[in-house]
Amino acid sequence: MNRRLTLVSSVAGAVLVALDGTVLTVAQPSLQRALHASFVQVQWTSTAYLVAVASLLVFAGRLGDRYGHRRVFGLGMLGFGAASAGVGLAPGIGWVIGLRVAQGVFGALLQPATLGMLRAAFPPERLAMPLAVRTSAIGLAAAAGPLLGGALVSGPGWRAVFFLGVLPAVGFGLVALAPPGPDRPPAARAPLDLPGALFLAVALACLVHTLVALPASGAAVAAGLGGALLAGATFVRHERRTARPLLPPEVIGSPAVAAALGMLVAASASLFGTLFVETYVLQRRLALDPFQSALRSLPLAVLMVLSAPLCPVLLRRVGARWTAAAATAVLALGVLVLAAATGALALGGAFALLGAGFGTVMVAATHVVVRHAEVAVAGVAGGLQQTALNVGPVIGVAAGTALMGAGPRTALLVLAAVAAIAVPAARVLPAPGVASITNTADKRVRRGIPAGR
């Protein structure tokens, strides 16, 4: 697959997943009425997907490293499209929930592959712009999703929402699997570490389910978090002892990668927690209808789309360290402004700061994670990045839910602090002019010599 087609495919996969999440939110009330479902059952249409996708992303990335990202991407797209069509034809809410689990499984397959394909196709020094294009496309999808979903629900009905991505998913899936075959996997195929994958999946599933289910009883929260801690500790113990761990030491042992992942978790938690809280502020305190609320927040999507392509320029001139630090600080500032904003101008400015900060830090931190991974483990790196961007929003919304009792202003101040605390982590990111640690490995791969592990 050539570079242009690889970029288009990567963008298509990322947009498909982003659109699915935004249009589902719009469709849920209509879906509930049509299928005579309870509120808890409708919540599970989102929860089931989140638990499935978050628990499998890293293992799916490992599958891409072993069997080829193009092949895994193609299977993920075809499966995602088939599951989407199944939801659109589902006769009852139980079928919808089950098929949403299937969507989560196939979504987990395709998401790390979208980054793994880019890492394999582009040299490290040219990787920032493809990542920026991908981020801008996600921003556009986030902006267009509610409008498109609303139009479809109001017209053909909620089932049309799920048919929206079927043809693109099938088309790109078939292209990815067409001859001359998938991209070349590493010559030495290491074991998949199935026990490690199972322990990690259980830990993440328990964590995500517990956070999504908040507020819940103390016993349920304790059981969920206890299960996550136990599975997580077992996973760490297993990884230290196994000869072929699921998470290669060269990936998780890098301070820069760890810092970038932490910044992605903090930034996404701050942003999505803020959006959750501000929805209540706009619609209840300021008495705006959903459409007016969407207009107030539109600068977020616009600035996210515009800031992402500017990030590669900043990375070249000042490096990932200062770019990520400044972007995270801008995000925190946007939350602070939002905590005091009531007028349309102030709200628009605050949302613009959120979009500019998050769009930039997403590109900068992702660039560090993906670039610092050898091609042979790019899928695992992509899986970790996607896990951070799935777990972060869950943490942010859970925090926003827990803090709403103290008032929206208090909740927003805490969420601003979440982003601000992550700023010092940028100190370990690469400075301007620092060469990628993967250059040697990349050259060896291009010359036909397997990269060292």
Helices and strands in order, then pairings?
Elements: H1 3-35, H2 39-67, H3 69-89, H4 93-121, H5 128-154, H6 158-163, H7 166-177, H8 194-212, H9 218-241, H10 249-252, H11 255-285, H12 290-340, H13 344-371, H14 378-403, H15 408-422, H16 439-446
Helix pairs in contact: 1-2, 1-4, 1-5, 1-7, 2-3, 2-4, 2-8, 2-14, 3-4, 3-7, 4-14, 5-12, 5-13, 8-9, 8-14, 11-12, 11-13, 11-14, 11-15, 12-13, 12-15, 13-14, 14-15
Summarize, please.
The chain is mostly helical and 453 residues long. Helix content is 80%, strand content 0%.
Roughly how many Å is the radius of gyration? Answer: 21 Å
Enumerate the spans where pLDDT stays under 50 for 5 or more consecutive residues: 435-453
Q: If you average the pLDDT, what whole number results?
A: 87
Would you list the SSEs in sequence order as H and E?
A: HHHHHHHHHHHHHHHH
Number of β-strand runs: 0
Shape, principal axes of CA atoms: globular
Strand content: under 5%
Helix content: over 70%
Tell me about the largest β-sheet: none
Span between termini: 25 Å
Structural class computed from helices and strand pairing: mainly alpha
Q: What multimeric state do the chains show?
A: single chain
User: How many helix segments?
Assistant: 16
